[in-house]
Amino acid sequence: MLSQFVRLVALSLAFSLAVASAAAADDRCAGKLGTARILSVDPAGLHVGTKHFPQTLALADHEVVLTFDDGPNPGTTPKMLKILADQCVHATFFVVGRNAQAHPDLVKRIIAEGHTLGHHSMTHPMTLADISYDKAVADIEQGFRADEKAAYGHAGTRLRVPFFRFPGFGSSPELLAYLDTRGIATFGADLWASDWEKQTPEHQLNLVMERLQHAGKGIILFHDTRAQTVAMMPAFLAALQAQGYRVVQPVPVANVASAPQ
């Protein structure tokens, strides 16, 4: 009887702590942009982003998905993570395998702070479509293993998050078909800030907001490796909130139960 009583007390205490933690999170995020909803995505055969594919994610008007490519980078990614955390915003980071391998602490932090971890090849060639099929597949698979090991300590046979974005959007029908056989979703984008080009944060902000206002919604591509994008991001998140945009976080359908709310 005593052991049963102790277990009941422990369960009650755990529940109370969980409720208190959720309430504290709600208080911390009050009045901030936040993440409006989690979007459960079935990755099987999925190709999204109207810049390259016929369809995109099931987004309502004024809903956006924030994505960041090419990291992690110790000089810029921690700053980007802090900016997102300050506004309770969750994004998707498509990491490069060799960078994940070099900075596993940052990969783990991306996950610990509630973001979605996607994949972006091992070496980020200019385009995987311009190298042989076998070399391209090897680079993709090596990236998967490096990312998984950095994030979780080991690489399994199935990806925890089967989301992939081609470097430079350089896909081919054969490589798309390969990812389809692996049950891995291919992410393109609906718009971007062109932040691979040198520009001031102010110019970049005006450019991406103009494109977003024209599109009305969509998957937005940024690079967390670009200092100008880090400098622009607080003003961009403020502009999203001021203009009534809502942030959506896609997660694989199998992971929706454990996604941050």
TrEMBL record:
Signal peptide boundaries: 1-25
Cell wall biogenesis/degradation found in the keyword field: no
Residue ranges the record marks as coiled coil: none
UniProt cross-references to Pfam families, sorted A to Z: Polysacc_deac_1
InterPro entries named in the record: Glyco_hydro/deAcase_b/a-brl (IPR011330), NODB_dom (IPR002509), Polysacc_deacetylase_ArnD (IPR050248)
NodB homology domain: residues covered: 62-248
Keywords of this entry: Hydrolase, Metal-binding, Signal
Keyword Signal: yes
Top-level division of the source organism's lineage: Bacteria
Protein purpose: Is involved in generating a small heat-stable compound (Nod), an acylated oligomer of N-acetylglucosamine, that stimulates mitosis in various plant protoplasts.
PANTHER family for this protein: CHITIN DEACETYLASE 1-RELATED, GLYCOSYL TRANSFERASE-RELATED
Family label: Belongs to the polysaccharide deacetylase family.
Name listed for the protein in its UniProt record: Chitooligosaccharide deacetylase
Native organism taxonomy: Bacteria, Pseudomonadati, Pseudomonadota, Alphaproteobacteria, Hyphomicrobiales
